[in-house]
Design brief:
By secondary structure, the protein is an alpha/beta fold. The chain has helices spanning 2-24, 68-77, 89-101, 115-123, 131-137, 139-147, 150-155, 189-195, 203-215, 269-283, 296-304, 363-372, 376-384, 415-422, 443-456, 473-500, 503-516, 519-535; strands spanning 48-55, 79-86, 107-109, 165-169, 184-188, 225-227, 254-256, 262-264, 308-313, 326-328, 349-356, 396-399, 404-407, 428-430. This is Extracellular solute-binding protein.
C-alpha cells in the first residue's frame, strides 16, 4: 500500500512537472512585464505593477489594497500590487491550480506551503532560490539574519538553497518563549469562591471542583458545562490534562527528553493513565456533550455566555474576555506526586511565508519590495495592525519623538479579531530587541509571558523542544505517508477512549497497530533528523 502511494506521488509529480514546463517555459506566461529596472531605489519615479497571490482572513477587506498598511507601502515604494486574494480552502485550490497551469503570479504571499511542497516546487522550478537576492538586494533581512543567524540555518534547505522568505516573531526565549505552550486551561474562579473551594492543585481536586460545578448548577437553569474543549484542535484541546501523567501531550504528539530522545507521546504508559482519568470525568458527566464535534463558533458562543467551569485555549480574552472571572489552571500534581508541563514545539517561525515564482521577470524589484516588509517598523505593523486609520480601530499610536509604535488599549476588542481585519501578515521579522525600541509589547503578550514565567515554566521539566528541522524530500515523503494514517488513528482512538473507555483492554492491540502504521519508522526518521540538526 505504501509503495502504491509513493508511485502515485511520483506520477503526480511527473505530470505536474510537465504542466510546469509547459506553463513556465513560455515567456508570454510571465506574470508582469519586464520593466528592466536596475539599481532600484524607492520611491520609483514612475509607478509599476507586480502581480501577487495571497490569502487573508474572511474578516479582512476583499481587496488587500483597502488596508492602510499596504496603501502606505505603495506610496513609499511606487509599486502597485495587483492582488489575487482568497480565503480559506479556496486559496490552496487556486494556488495549486496556478502552479499546475503555469499561470503564475510574480510571487505568492502568505503561501502556506509545507516543507514537502516547498522542495517539490523547487525541484519543478516553479519557484526560485532567493539566497542571492537576499545577499544583493535585501539589507533589512540581512540585518535580521546578522542579529539572529540561527534563522538563516532554518531557512536553508538540505540542498543549500533558500526557497522562501520567513515570518519571525520572537516573544521571549527558550522555555520563556510565548510559544512554549498553547493549550492552557482557564477555570472559573468566581464559581470556586462561591463554593468555598481552593484552586485545584491535583488531578483529584480538579475532579472534585468539576463535580461541584455540576451538582450546584453554577450557571443556572441547567446551563452549566463543567468542562469544555474542542477535541484535537490545537490550543482548544484538553492535552494540558495529560501532563500530570508522565510526558504529557501536545498538538504534534512529540516531545524530546533531556537525554535528547524523541518521544511519541501517545505511545507512553502515562498517556494511557491520562486517558483513564479523562474517561472518569466523562463518566461523571463533567464534559461538554458537544466537545467531540463542536466548531469554534459554538465553542465561543458558550464561552461568552460564561457557561464553562473549565475550558482550554491560548488566550482567554478570545473566549470569555480579559477579566478576572477565569484564571489559569495551574499545573496539577499527578498520582505520582509530580508536576509537569509538556512544552509545545511551536516557535515564532514560518519558513514559507512568501515565494517568488519562475514567472517573475523583475527579481531585483520584487526582492527590494519584499525587503521593505522586514523594516522593523513595517514588520511590527504587518504583524499586528497599524496607526492613524480614521475608519477602523487602531492597534497602535505612533510616537514620533521616540520613533516608536505604542500599543493602544483594545477597549474590549478581541486581539485576534482586530489583527485579522487590519494586519497583512506575510514575511516579517520581530526580534526580542525590538520591544522597548521599535514597539511596545502588547498588553496581552506581556500578561501571557508573566503567567508563563510564574506558573508554568517552573514545571516544564524538558529542556528541549523538537526544532524546526528542514528535512530532505525523501524524509518528508516518508513522514507524510506514515502520518496520513498514524495521526488520524491516534486521534480517533483518543476520542473513542475518553468517551467509551476500554483503553486498558485495547492498549496492546493499539501499540501493535501503531507499529503496523509505521510508528517505529516515523520515530527513527524524527530522531535521525533531530540528531543531524543538533550537529550542525
Amino acid at each position: 500500500m505504501k509503495n502504491m502511494y509513493r508511485s502515485l506521488l511520483t506520477l503526480t509529480s511527473v505530470l505536474l512537472g510537465i504542466l510546469l514546463i509547459a506553463g513556465c517555459g513560455n515567456s508570454e506566461k510571465a506574470s508582469s512585464e519586464n520593466y528592466e529596472l536596475n539599481d532600484i531605489t524607492f520611491p520609483l519615479e514612475e509607478e509599476v505593477t507586480l502581480k501577487f497571490m495571497t490569502e487573508s482572513s474572511p474578516m479582512a477587506p476583499e481587496d488587500p489594497n483597502d488596508k492602510l498598511i499596504l496603501q502606505r507601502l505603495e506610496e513609499e515604494t511606487g509599486v502597485h500590487i495587483e492582488w489575487k486574494n482568497y480565503t480559506g480552502e479556496s486559496f490552496a485550490e487556486k494556488r495549486n491550480l496556478a502552479v499546475a497551469s503555469g499561470e503564475l503570479p510574480d510571487a505568492i504571499m502568505n503561501a502556506g506551503y509545507s516543507d514537502y511542497e516547498l522542495l517539490d516546487l523547487a525541484n519543478d522550478e516553479a519557484i526560485i532560490p532567493v539566497e542571492d537576492l537576499i545577499d544583493q538586494y535585501m539589507p533589512n533581512l540581512q540585518a535580521v539574519l546578522e542579529q539572529a543567524p540561527e534563522y538563516r540555518a532554518m531557512m536553508t534547505a538540505p540542498d543549500g538553497h533558500i526557497y522562501a522568505f520567513p515570518w519571525i516573531e520572537e516573544l521571549g526565549a527558550g522555555k520563556e518563549s510565548i510559544h512554549s505552550l498553547d493549550a492552557t486551561g482557564w477555570i472559573n474562579v468566581e464559581w470556586l469562591d462561591e463554593l468555598g473551594l481552593d484552586m485545584p492543585s491535583t488531578t483529584e481536586e480538579l475532579k472534585e471542583a468539576l463535580v461541584a460545578f455540576k451538582e450546584n448548577d453554577m450557571a443556572g437553569d441547567g446551563q452549566t458545562i463543567p468542562m469544555s474543549f474542542i477535541i484535537n484542535h490545537g490550543g482548544e484541546d484538553l492535552s494540558f490534562l495529560f501532563s500530570p501523567f508522565g510526558e504529557g501531550d501536545n498538538w504534534d504528539h512529540t516531545v524530546v527528553s533531556n537525554d535528547d530522545e524523541v518521544i511519541f507521546t501517545t505511545a507512553q504508559e502515562g498517556y494511557r493513565e491520562g486517558i483513564n482519568y479523562l474517561h472518569e470525568l466523562y463518566e461523571l458527566d463533567l464534559m461538554d456533550v458537544e466537545a467531540f464535534e463542536q466548531d469554534w463558533n459554538s465553542y465561543l458562543a458558550k464561552g461568552k455566555e460564561e457557561r464553562y467551569g473549565l475550558y482550554f485555549t491560548w488566550d482567554k480574552a478570545n473566549i470569555t474576555g480579559q477579566n478576572d472571572k477565569y484564571q489559569l489552571l495551574p499545573p496539577l500534581e499527578g498520582p505520582d506526586g509530580r508536576k509537569h508541563v509538556a512544552r509545545s514545539n511551536g516557535m515564532g517561525f514560518d519558513r514559507a511565508r512568501m515565494v517568488i515564482t519562475s514567472a517573475n521577470e523583475n527579481l531585483e524589484l520584487t526582492a527590494k519590495w519584499i525587503d521593505q516588509l522586514y523594516d522593523p517598523h513595517q514588520s511590527v505593523q504587518n504583524n499586528w495592525g497599524t496607526y492613524g486609520d480614521e475608519e477602523k480601530q487602531n492597534i497602535f499610536e505612533y510616537d514620533e519623538s521616540e520613533n516608536m509604535l505604542r500599543h493602544l488599549s483594545l477597549e474590549g476588542t478581541a486581539p485576534v479579531e482586530l489583527r485579522e481585519e487590519t494586519s497583512v501578515g506575510g514575511p516579517l521579522a520581530i526580534l526580542d530587541g525590538y520591544y522597548g525600541d521599535v514597539t511596545t509589547m502588547p498588553d496581552d503578550a506581556a500578561w501571557r509571558l508573566e503567567i508563563l514565567h510564574e506558573e508554568l515554566v517552573p514545571y516544564m521539566n524538558n529542556d528541549n523542544i523538537y526544532p524546526k528541522v528542514f528535512m530532505t524530500l525523501e524524509e518528508l515523503d516518508d513522514l507524510s505517508t506514515i502520518e496520513a494514517d498514524l495521526f488520524p488513528y491516534v486521534e480517533r482512538k483518543k476520542a473513542e477512549w475518553i468517551s467509551n473507555g476500554n483503553v486498558d483492554e485495547e492498549w496492546e492491540e493499539y501499540l501493535t497497530e501503531l507499529d503496523r502504521l509505521g510508528y517505529q519508522e516515523w520515530l527513527e526518521i524524527k530522531q535521525t533528523a533531530y540528531d543531524r540538526n543538533a550537529e550542525e
